[in-house]
Design brief:
By secondary structure, the protein is an alpha+beta fold. It is built from three helices and five strands; from the N terminus they run αβαβαβββ. The protein is elongated and about 70 Å long.
């Protein structure tokens, strides 16, 4: 067998495999527990847009000062976000707290084409 033909076939198969794979993007949104209602709604609209495009959304809630001790506001914010994006995405895992940051990952709901 010709080596050039072998290399050509190998490259052709690799290109076909690459066409079929999907690349998952992760978009990041940063919030604070005391974010105003209008600003929160604006960020939620962006989250919904990203989820419709098929990207995952990572939400980081930053805690400062005394907010670290009283995380109730932050977890209320998490609940608001969950309710707002429930028809477009689902939580991948429970919110994690790492020091002063609460991480939340939202994956888009898969639809049949």
């Amino acid at each position: 067998m010709d080596y050039g033909k072998y290399k050509y076939e190998k490259n052709k198969k690799a290109k076909e495999a690459k066409k079929k794979q999907t690349i998952i993007q992760i978009k990041e949104i940063k919030l604070r527990p005391r974010t105003e209602e209008h600003d929160l709604n604006f960020k939620i609209k962006h989250m919904i847009k990203f989820l419709k495009e098929g990207a995952k959304v990572k939400v980081n809630i930053f805690l400062r000062g005394r907010e670290v001790d009283n995380t109730e506001l932050a977890f209320e914010l998490v609940e608001k976000i969950k309710e707002a994006v429930s028809e477009f995405g689902t939580l991948e895992n429970n919110p994690k707290r790492e020091g002063r940051i609460i991480h939340l990952m939202i994956a888009p709901i898969k639809t049949k084409k």
